Amino acid sequence: MEIKVDKLSFDYQKDIPIEKRLINKLSFTIEQDKITVIIGKNGSGKTTLLELMNGLLKPQSGKIIIGDYVIDKKNTVDKEFHKKVGFLFQFPEEQFFHSTVEKEIGFSVDQFQYRVNEKEKRVKEALLLVGLNDSYLKRDPLTLSNVEMRKVALASILIYNPKVLFLDEPTVGFDEENKKSFLKLIKRLKKRYHKTIIMVSHDIEFIHKFADEILVLDNGKLITQGDKYEVFKQEKRMKEIGLTVPKMIQFSNLVYEKKGKKIGYRDEINDLIKDIYRYVK
Questions:
Q1: Which label site among 44, 79, 127, 243 has the fewest CB atoms less than 10 Å from its CB?
Q2: Can you list the positions of beta strands (E) in the chain?
């Protein structure tokens, strides 16, 4: 589903002037079936924006349109809305309520009234989708590692097949192997299952490998939005607001600055090396 944000403003303090609010007159569109990553320094309003788009917070002014749903200070979202969107919290233990992984993941099947005879099958399929097997079913989710908890929390969302996924810092604490498997999963969710994915992350090197669009926030305002290459090539502008750009793009920018040669931008270092080799030949 496409998401439209129109003149959105919000602050946790009431009666604060609009120009000083944490989210300040934001307007943008997130396209359907794309992976959009929101970046910005700490305190720029990224997580708050996710919670507003998910209906966990209500705007003080402006509105958010997700499919047929309008979220503003008057309208509240219902159960049908939450069947269409899923939210992965930065701290997954905050969304655990049950004593076993099986019950935790299966809760959504009960909540949204799916057929009970499909429950066991759907729980196992959701676990496998995130890279865990059925040996986890009887374990207490709060005894798992940080990475395993995130996977269980994601499985508890994917089981009800939402069209939109909001992910808040989903790879914090992941090693490179887990990042690679998560990268494959995100690409699969987009290409095979046609999910619209909105993610907050500080991991610039990681998001460079899969993001379609980048949305940059600073002090609650939209600084820039666009194709990741168009956004990340603005290295000077990123530095001014306390952000870095991927090392490969830094290198490409340096070659252009020093030698006047454009060698392009790539997601993987191997692709960049191939381009340089072809250019040298």
A1: 79
A2: 3-10, 23-30, 35-39, 61-66, 69-71, 85-88, 164-168, 196-200, 213-218, 221-227
